[in-house]
Amino acid sequence: MEVIDEVASVLNMDRDILARASVKVFLERELRCIEAEIFEIGAKHGIRSIFELDDKLKRGEVREADVLDDFQELDFLEVRRDEILAALKSFPQ
């Protein structure tokens, strides 16, 4: 028996309802963590998005060598955030 089946049985819940609610909570938690990481990088560089960091690079306000790791991480995080937001759209409000 799978964990989801065991928990659904203990809680006397429909398995599919529990699974769907669990996935939604997981996605929301992941989104909060990612947004916190994005905020942290943004605060460090005084920006709110990768586009603003890219603009700072183009204007020479920061050196690529100094921000490359954060730039790559921010790019990954913003893509991941968009994927999670897209997944959350499948859940009714």
- Can you count the helices? 4
Write the element-wise H/E pattern from the N-terminal end onward: HHHH
Rg, rounded, reads 19 Å
Low-confidence stretches: none
The beta-strand count equals 0
Quickly count the domains.
1
| Major pleated sheet | none
Classify the beta-strand content into a percent band: under 5%
Average pLDDT level: 95
What is the helix content? over 70%
Helix-strand makeup class: mainly alpha
Overall, the morphology is elongated
Distance between the termini: 31 Å
Question: Quick recap of the structure?
Answer:
The protein is mainly alpha-helical and 93 residues long. The chain has one domain. The chain is built from 4 helices and no strands.
If you had to describe this structure to a student in words, what would you say it looks like?
With 93 residues, the chain is mainly α. It has helices spanning 3-11, 15-45, 50-58, 64-88. The longest helix has 31 residues, at 15-45. The mean pLDDT is 95.
